[in-house]
Amino acid sequence: MARADLTVMGAGVFGLSVAWAAARRGARVRVVEAAHVGAGASGGVVGALMPHAPGGKWDAARAFQLDSLRMAPGWWADAEARSGLSAGYAPVGRLSPLADGRAVEAARAGAAAAADRWGPGFGWQVVPAGPGWGPVSPTGLWLHETLSARVSPRAALAVLVAALKAEGSTVEEGVTLPDPEGPTVWATGQAGLAPFGGGPVRGQAARLALDAGAVPLVHAPGLFVVPHADGSVAVGSTDERDRLDPASDERLEEVIARARALVPALAGAPVIERWAGLRPRAAHGRPLLGPWPGRPGWFVANGGFKTGFGLAPLVGEVMADLVLEGRDRVPEGFAAAPRAVRPDERPRPASPPDPPRVPAPRRSPPAGGDRGG
User: Fold this and answer.
1) Can you give 188-247 as a three-state secondary structure string?
2) pTM assigned to the model
3) Range with the lowest mean pLDDT among 1-5, 67-71, 148-152, 296-300?
4) How many CB atoms lie within 10 A of CB 356?
5) Could you give the 3-state DSSP secondary structure of residue 25?
6) Radius of gyration, alpha carbons of the chain
7) Is 326 left (phi over 0), alpha (psi -120 to 50) or beta?
8) Rounded distance between C-alpha atoms, residue 153 and residue 14, angstroms
């Protein structure tokens, strides 16, 4: 095989998105995965793509996520067309229950901010709760916005792999490559965070058998309910630092019970899969993108945590700009900054060391993010 123009270490959604963005520009890309495609958090089941609330504090990180969500329909359509497969992407929008008058007032106030920041084509409004699909709402009102979307995480990874192969690139599974030659992007998930700080956060989610159709996803604090095109509904997920066991447990059963109470249509739907996995969270809570300091030719794309699939289209394009063309569009605050590392230390795509202790993250805002798992 001819030497690749770019090597990508890791076949999760960040790694495959960077590879696809480079391959569609004509680069020969070699993706190397120590386990298998989607072995980490990207192999989860939820797939909710949701923007941050448009009001209040706004910064480069939130703007980056918004830009990625807005470009997602065309980006996934291009990959689907090249692969001949479906990623299960659909801009279904979101319904959220409104707990009290204060929540209703805040939701109504968000309409002007959404029109200003999201631009035309996306709605944000308070509507009466209706029959059929939707959450129980104490006020009888829902927030309905139309920017949110869904994607099937595993189907999306399969689309990217097939699109890469159609472009003549390669995806190698069960392979380790400690010292790749040439430009290399390290997208190795929670195992690759050790040189930069941060570590794994366990998430648990489930799939229930219910063909709800192309209806909006549902979001309430700490809970997503996402109908998928394959006749399943995904619910999730937990955020756990105290347990890193890959097996699901009673906390997932609590999530399932909450989902059934929130969305009555789920009451008789059987559970067909329980999933638990480790998601990569950087110490500062933002993605890590850009050059690997002190290692010429090496780059980092990591730390997607709960927003990996939502950020992936723009992460891929920004990293391809940087690696192939030298154009740096990485937002301020996303740059990789290493902790003290021995000169001979290398990133480890498998068998990670014990995660360092990091401060607990601030409580997540009521809107924003996605869940691969």
Assistant:
1) CHHHHCHHHCCEEEEEEEEEEECCCCCCCEEEECCEEEEECCCCEEEEECCCECCCCCCC
2) 0.90
3) 1-5
4) 13
5) coil
6) 20
7) left
8) 12
